[in-house]
Amino acid sequence: MTIDTIVNEMTGFWTFLCLMLVFFMQCGFTMVEAGLTRAKNAGNIIMKNMMDFCIGTIAFMALGFGLICGPSVNGLFGGYEFVFSDFQSFDWSAFFFNLVFCATAATIVSGAMAERTKFSAYCAYSFIISLLIYPVEAHWIWNAGGWLYNLGFVDFAGSTAVHMTGGVAALIGAAILGPRIGKYKKLDDGSVRVSAIPGHSMTLAALGVFILWFAWYGFNGAAAKTTSDAAQILVTTTISAAIATTTTMFFTWKKNGAPDVSMTLNGSLAGLVGITAGCANVDALGATVIGFICGLVVVLAVEGIDQRLHIDDPVGAVAVHGCCGAIGTLLVGVFDYNNGLLYGGGVHLLLIQILGVCSVICWVAVTMTVVYKVIDATIGLRVSRDEEIEGLDACEHNLASSYADFMFTSYPLAAGDDSTATIPTPEAAVPVAIKQGPQTIVTDADGHVYTKVQIITNENRFDDLKKALGQIGVAGMTVTHVLGCGTQKGKGRTYRGVEIDYDLMPKIQIDIVVSKVPVDAVIDAARHALYTGKIGDGKIFVYNVGDVVRIRTGETGYDALQIQD
């Protein structure tokens, strides 16, 4: 085996490793989209990201691959190539290379149209994106006969070909589809109130971003021909993403008073998208500036699309992929170290970049508008109001919940807790007189009264409360995780730059039924354990209970409340 053969084999191994990472981006997109949307639609998000790759593969085999890689017809599209015609000599490397990139373009649309799109409609337009929309413009850019390729247009790994294409398709789709119920409300004065709809799991979203960042090294590095080229690509990719993330964090911190978690995650993706076009054509300085600009642009674009255009994009796909994909591609004309404006190349490359970006925008906008309108007029794009409210998991997939086995926990508490912790006794916690309402007090034959004490408070105070109640002899309790706020509607907060009208905060609800232990002792112990003097300490509710039954033994009343050995 010659040195050249070894080098070729190693290059091939690197390429296929990178392509497998690009496929793994489907997992990252799934987690980001699921985390930034509501739990009732998580299964639908999973299905869409799974099926757009599978359906896209079928479409790519049928026509898409030929449109990209076939012999160019006047620089506009490739000639037909049937993948089953000659298995032994077919260029499967090129097929798989282009397939995984095509799937990425299709999956971008999912997030922007999440939580209100029919699954059948999604499958239909995802098929068409992989069949026709993406392959044609990718042929312009990457096929040696493509008209943009021959003009010298630079898009090394797909800021425009993949990301901006997906972003434009997402923008058109979200605009035609309309916002989620409750997102925008027109007021009497003609203005529009924008409401925040927070995602259900920032943990999932963050994990998705880490997966995408990791896989992006394959996305940008797949076309590297030498170790030196690969190293440069990985470094410029890292610099841009890191600078963009940091920029977004500080920008939202300054703008909103706190570093925004979800927006910072978008900032990482913005930097990755922005550098993708020029990762092999810019130096460290260029990567730094591209990252910085994308870190600012993503915040302004997310808020502008939401608060000015009133287009509902739950995950920021249009801002991240559409806007930063276009910006990153244009900035190659400025920072390309061979032909860029700031490197002595004049405006020639920049003008070509502008032409390429505008041409792809026009192609995708026109064709996807037709696609969405046809789908809407035939099978319909949007689910019904009732289906949207109930959630797409239940209505579209007959799935009760993506988290069916996650049940709220009950914490049994035995009397005589051996904890020696001291119950806090704040001076401001003044005694409270228990007032009996106009209800009938129910007693048993022995005169026992059963009372339910319900406490709603912050979870971080639970350990103190549990110890305090154990010290006064409370035999047991049931604890439930709930969401709530008082008349002050919670502390003022923002989500992705939008003020949250009603900030439902995580709380715990503790239910206790007592007879032997005095009610006022329970209330006093709870107040001393939970008191901080700040809004949000919680509330205590007292109810009469008619009777108590122990299921195991059939005991009722007072005996059912006592601890058994």
Tell me the helix content: 40-55%
Distance, first to last CA? 78 Å
The geometry reads as elongated
Largest sheet: 4 strands, antiparallel
Strand content: 5-15%
Number of strands: 10
Uncertain stretches of 5 or more adjacent residues: 407-429
User: Which strand order spans the largest sheet, edge to edge or round the barrel?
Assistant: 6-9-5-10
Structure explained in plain terms:
The protein is an alpha+beta fold. It is 55% helix and 8% strand. It is built from 17 helices and 10 strands. A 4-stranded antiparallel sheet has the order 6-9-5-10, with helices on one face. Helix 2 crosses helix 3, helix 2 runs parallel beside helix 4 and helix 15 runs antiparallel to helix 16. About 4% of the residues have low confidence.
Question: Gist?
Answer:
This protein has 565 residues and is of the alpha+beta class. The chain is 55% helix and 8% strand. It has helices at 3-35, 42-69, 92-112, 119-142, 147-151, 159-177, 202-221, 227-256, 261-276, 284-307, 317-335, 348-378, 385-390, 392-397, 462-471, 519-530, 557-560, and strands at 72-73, 77-78, 184-186, 192-194, 450-457, 478-484, 494-495, 498-499, 505-514, 539-545.
Keywords:
565 residues; alpha+beta; four-stranded antiparallel sheet; two-stranded antiparallel ribbon; 17 helices; 10 strands; 55% helix; 8% strand; elongated
Outline the secondary-structure elements.
Layout: H1 3-35, H2 42-69, E1 72-73, E2 77-78, H3 92-112, H4 119-142, H5 147-151, H6 159-177, E3 184-186, E4 192-194, H7 202-221, H8 227-256, H9 261-276, H10 284-307, H11 317-335, H12 348-378, H13 385-390, H14 392-397, E5 450-457, H15 462-471, E6 478-484, E7 494-495, E8 498-499, E9 505-514, H16 519-530, E10 539-545, H17 557-560
Antiparallel strand pairs: 1-2, 3-4, 5-9, 5-10, 6-9, 7-8
